[in-house]
Write a structure and sequence with these properties.
Shape: flat
Structural class: alpha+beta
Helix content: 40-55%
Strand content: 5-15%
Strand order of the largest sheet: 6-7-8-9
Mean pLDDT: 83
Radius of gyration: 30 Å
Distance between the termini: 62 Å
Low-confidence stretches: 240-245
């Protein structure tokens, strides 16, 4: 038992992002889906304390926790509406058939050919689709009256859960084993973790040696291998725990409390089940490591908005358009912390009894936060470009690179190149302004007024020369040569072409009055804005095909 902790109380601290997801998931399950953390503390009063970066609670509140976990896992993973859609799709396909014979492959075409679908319908409705899909008229009658109408009477998965539980939980156990045990963690061990936490032995840790303490919390006695039984998502097992944590694999063990928290991570991350013919699971977690209250409230805000969003296949849209903007706006100029946005993507490389995941961590720094706050999302460039006969949406591409802190002069150069070759359909001026402003902010955000001055004078300078040039092809040729110089940041080559061009058209030389010759960023800003001005004559042709 740690210092200052009551006799039957336990304490956990925020740590790595997955453990933090576990803390959020633990609170969510404990309070049965409560999204306001203040209501959770009110509900448990003296039995639960949330204090900055740690959570302290009486082990007595774990009563019926496993049952809550099981129920909320089913509600999270079972998609009732998807079954209704697939059954109606099957009905439509059968109605289109002429004659009375139907083929079994129609079940597969409607998304009902798998074992899970058949087990659910058989357990819930008492009918096996595979057994009755022979005679069209008889099948339609049973499909419509015994299955579809029965499911239409239930408007949420909780009612389905209660009905299945009353029938003996056979399908519930099968479904959760498939969805959780083989993909996330061995959730049935939660019963064992809770039993250990409630034992007297668990609290007798005063005389424990360091080697006997949990490798995660360093407070309680270690009992369990940190294996795929506890978490498959971050993949700690005896083969890879050594290089991740730096310990001997045989010694990486954790206490029952940490095992319970890691097992709760499923409910601290937001699920997106892709419907783009790949049927993969995507999980998202918003990590704010300042304190538990802020982290939980931010996650619930994200969860609520995510579930209401119509286009769930575009989480980056939601994240930058609404969520991050709102979170940052709460603190405005006082925003000093990092926000981590974690994307977990299921892939096909797991073994027969496991799944494997790719994990991406997107870090919202204070500089990026300030950029987002001061750049309205409506100004993010729209349109697209064609590469290898594929159309790429630049709105999504620029969003991802913005969040991933990878947007650079190279991207700007590519967008200019596509534009000149008439493969890019967008407003190149808006792209230039957005990316130059972004680079300036990420590098410290100083002298934003100077950026505006450089861009404006260079853009006008380019327009003046474009107006004196009769040939559009000549403008494109000049722009392409200058673009190649900027691509490798060759200041001398660019200056040579710029000076020759200015003298040839008797145009004032504007390069150099704002430290462009001594500051590489100022030089790059001038260069792209100047090329943008040169291209002003050909913009209408490209923008008609998609740019704003």
């Amino acid at each position: 038992m740690g210092k200052g902790i009551k006799s039957d109380y336990v304490r956990i601290y925020t740590k790595d992002w997955y453990y933090n997801a576990g803390i959020a998931g633990f609170l969510f399950i404990l309070a049965e889906g409560e999204i306001k953390i203040e209501n959770i503390t009110k509900k448990y009063k003296d039995f639960l304390t949330i204090n900055g970066n740690y959570l302290e609670f009486s082990s007595s509140i774990l009563d019926k926790f496993y049952e809550k976990y099981e129920r909320f896992s089913f509600l999270k993973l079972f998609d009732l509406e998807s079954y209704k859609e697939r059954l109606n799709k099957l009905k439509s396909k059968i109605n289109e058939i002429q004659g009375n014979k139907i083929k079994k492959n129609l079940l597969k075409e409607a998304g009902l050919g798998g074992k899970v679908a058949n087990k659910f319908i058989k357990d819930f409705c008492g009918i096996s689709l595979e057994e009755i899909i022979k005679d069209k008229n008889k099948f339609l009658n049973k499909l419509e009256n015994n299955i579809i109408k029965k499911l239409e009477n239930y408007n949420n998965s909780l009612i389905i859960y209660d009905k299945l539980k009353a029938k003996g939980k056979k399908f519930i156990d099968y479904f959760l084993d498939l969805e959780i045990t083989k993909g996330i963690c061995f959730y049935k061990n939660i019963k064992k973790y809770i039993k250990d936490i409630n034992s007297k032995k668990f609290f007798n840790n005063e005389n424990l040696k360091t080697k006997d303490l949990c490798n995660s919390c360093s407070i309680y006695k270690k009992e369990y291998d940190f294996s795929n039984a506890i978490t498959q998502i971050i993949g700690f097992n005896k083969d890879n725990s050594n290089w991740i944590w730096g310990f001997n694999p045989n010694k990486v063990r954790i206490c029952p409390l940490c095992a319970l928290i890691y097992s709760c991570a499923l409910h601290g991350i937001v699920l997106l089940r892709s419907k783009n013919n790949e049927f993969k699971n995507y999980f998202y977690f918003l990590n704010r490591n300042t304190n538990i209250e802020t982290m939980y409230n931010s996650l619930m805000l994200f969860k609520t908005k995510f579930e209401k969003e119509k286009n769930l296949n575009k989480p980056f849209y939601l994240m930058i358009n609404d969520l991050i903007y709102m979170l940052i706006q709460e603190k405005a100029e006082r925003f000093l912390e990092n926000i981590n946005f974690i994307e977990i993507v299921e892939n096909e490389f797991g073994g027969q009894s496991t799944k494997s995941y790719n994990i991406f961590n997107y870090n919202i720094t204070p500089e990026l936060a300030k950029f987002i706050l001061e750049t309205h999302h409506n100004t993010i460039p729209k349109g697209g470009y064609i590469v290898k006969d594929l159309y790429v949406d630049i709105y999504e591409e620029i969003l991802k690179k913005t969040i991933n802190l990878t947007l650079s002069y190279t991207d700007l150069n590519n967008y200019f190149s596509y534009y000149i070759k008439e493969k890019g359909y967008y407003n190149i001026y808006n792209i230039m302004k957005y990316i130059l402003k972004y680079i300036k902010y990420i590098n410290g955000g100083e002298n934003m007024d100077e950026l505006e001055k450089i861009v404006n004078k260079a853009f006008r300078n380019g327009i003046e020369i474009a107006e004196k040039t009769e040939s559009e092809n000549k403008i494109k040729g000049i722009a392409y040569q200058l673009l190649n110089d900027l691509k490798i940041a060759d200041k001398n080559a660019f200056m040579d072409k710029y000076l020759r061009l200015s003298m040839a058209y008797d145009n004032p030389i504007m390069l150099g009055s704002n430290n462009e010759l001594t500051n590489i960023d100022n030089f790059m800003q001038f260069g792209y804005a100047f090329i943008n001005g040169l291209l002003s004559k050909i913009k209408d042709k490209n923008e008609k095909k998609g740019g704003k």
